[in-house]
Amino acid sequence: MSSGYDVVGIGNAIVDIIAPADDEFLAQHDISKGVMTLIDAERAAHLCGALPMAQEAAGGSAANTMAGLASLGAIGLFVGKVKADRLGESFASGLRELGVRYTTPMADGGPPTACCIIAVTPDGQRSMSTYLGASRELTPADISDADIAAAEVLYIEGYLWDMPDAKAAINKAIAAAKANRRKVAFTLSDPFCVGRWRAEFLALLKDIDILFANEEEAKALFETEDFDAVLQKTRIWPGIAALTRSEKGCVIAQGVEVHVLDAAPVERVVDSTGAGDQFAAGFLYGITHGKGLAQAGRLGGLAAGEVISHYGARPETSLRTLAADAGLV
Amino acid sequence: MSSGYDVVGIGNAIVDIIAPADDEFLAQHDISKGVMTLIDAERAAHLCGALPMAQEAAGGSAANTMAGLASLGAIGLFVGKVKADRLGESFASGLRELGVRYTTPMADGGPPTACCIIAVTPDGQRSMSTYLGASRELTPADISDADIAAAEVLYIEGYLWDMPDAKAAINKAIAAAKANRRKVAFTLSDPFCVGRWRAEFLALLKDIDILFANEEEAKALFETEDFDAVLQKTRIWPGIAALTRSEKGCVIAQGVEVHVLDAAPVERVVDSTGAGDQFAAGFLYGITHGKGLAQAGRLGGLAAGEVISHYGARPETSLRTLAADAGLV
Q1: Which CATH number fits domain B5-13+59-112+134-325: 3.40.109.10, 3.40.1190.20, 3.40.50.150, 3.40.50.300?
Q2: Are strands B257-261 and B250-254 parallel, antiparallel or unpaired?
Q3: In this predicted complex, what is the ipTM?
Q4: CB–CB of B190/B44 below 8 Å?
Q5: Shortest CB distance from A260 goes to which of B256, B260, B262?
């Protein structure tokens, strides 16, 4: 490997606050089911107070991906902003314990560390209310050109676009990756996020080498209701499209190369949180370790299959062991 | 159109004898559940006698496809052998009423018209016992080079390979199609049929322009358990592969062109019999009417969706009307 890191991931540094809830709770508190909604500090405090039996876990989409990459044995750096408060310390130690490097300076003042309040209904769906807090404070000074240059892949999450102040930091990172001929990978994050930033995401495609999107996100990006239309759009774009389709598996396409891969068998889907994040982890592990597109897609499916078979958005079993058992590494 | 027929289909001319049965009946009569087994005349007579409340319906895989093509408004000819007995007359009138041309001379002597005894268990599964009877008597004299030359596509079913005596007729038909630069379409019919004739089917691929296979059949042909491996095999073959995947929809591939199409929405799957036959009908209608591969695949999905929403292997609703309502024709 010519560089120090397999992947540098940039994303919102968020602590998840997870609790079981019923549909009545969602209705009572006006929570949109199954999607991610941005909330302010006041509403965050209100929801936290109303949810019984909440558990905390370090989260954030790209941070979860970095955790998955570490579980596979990859070397990664995470960039994202927390405040120097209890949740911020918890986020940082959560990543470091897994072996992910995390050096972004904590904010001393300003808003508290970001949190995502996740209400899990009995049907296994998660409804997320995100307070971005300190994660909005990411600045160009937090981006080290040398770190970007030292990584084979720069991975950025679409959720970052919800923080207009952080855009200068993202642009700096992409410019550094391009200047050093590093690959840029991007996840569309969420169909509503695509709705908010569609024009910018389309313009961004010219700088992207690897696009992660689930079916709904990709349909929102290309404004179509037809999956095959999405596939044909991605195929006239030069990058690698990794299109995930839940129980239908995934389609990986780059120009004339197309793979249609089944989902990894899962005994029971317990909680779909983090499926996309872990798919990206497995896929990026494959791409940074000399695997072809099909093998990378299978690694993505394996990692996603692990994370949806239990609560929480990060692996509970060594992905490296699972991948070895499956003959994928 | 430069020719008189859209499609000439060659297949076993079979009358279906359908009756409800329980698992005890299957066990008592040693019937393998969910698959097609070949039986002799004695066993056919025995099973017919044992099954109460049987209903007759003209069937046969390629004949069902021709019925679907007629329902879409295509012009077709069916070639297959019956005896001049009651079931033979029933088969012939069943096709002609739908507007399918059928001119194969009936056998005066020899075995009776073929029948397929279908035991339908309460779980909706169909266990088929096929007595090939007169359909085995197809000879080269039944194949008209002029008819083959007059059709845009020659469509043949893999089940024909179970009749070694009919092979000369099939070879004559393929030679006539090739000599007249007509397309040859072929369905693998059944995974067990592929198991019986795998080497011959692989050798046949060089003469095939359009291959129909469901996932299990295609996996049996290429001896793999991985759908993507099937897809990659078909893509280095120059023909069109139409790979059907039940509720997962279908994948249509020809070299660098690949389409991943969802299954048509179906309220309730009542009886999956004929899904493959009708997919072929819709697809061949598209191919013979100037539609691209994606549109042809959608027509196939639409026709399959109609036939699985009711009992029986032929359309009950005008496929032409359904296709028009869906904006596909």
Answers
A1: 3.40.1190.20
A2: antiparallel
A3: 0.80
A4: no
A5: B260
Separation of alpha carbons A306 and A304, rounded Å: 5
Contacts of A251 in chain B (CB under 8 A): 260
Please tell me the distance in Å from B171's CA to the nearest CA on chain A.
34
Q: Do B256 and A261 touch (CB under 8 A)?
A: no
List chain A residues with CB under 8 Å of B227.
260-262
CA-wise closest residue to B196 among B163, B239, B225:
B163
Which CATH code of 3.40.50.150, 3.40.50.1220, 3.40.1190.20, 3.40.1440.60 fits the domain covering A5-12+60-110+134-325?
3.40.1190.20
Q: Which residues of chain B lie closer than 8 angstroms to A261, CB-CB?
A: 227-228
- Per-residue pLDDT at B2 exceeds 60: no
Shortest CA gap B122–chain A (Å): 26
Per residue in B131-185, pLDDT (tens digit) is 999 999 999 999 999 999 999 999 999 999 988 878 899 999 999 999 999 999 9
Per-domain residue ranges of chain A: 5-12+60-110+134-325
Number of residues that make up chain B: 329
What is the pLDDT averaged over residues A301-328? 95
Token pair recorded at residue A50: 């109303």
User: Looking at the complex, does the CB of residue A299 fall below 8 Å from at least one CB of chain B?
Assistant: no
pTM above threshold 0.80: yes
Query: What pLDDT is stored for residue B3 in this prediction?
Result: 52
Q: How much is the pLDDT for A3?
A: 52
A294: chain B residues, CB-CB within 8 Å: 228, 232
CB-hemisphere CA count at 13 Å for A127? 20
Disruptive mutation site among A245, A258, A302 for chain B (greatest number of B CBs within 10 Å): A258
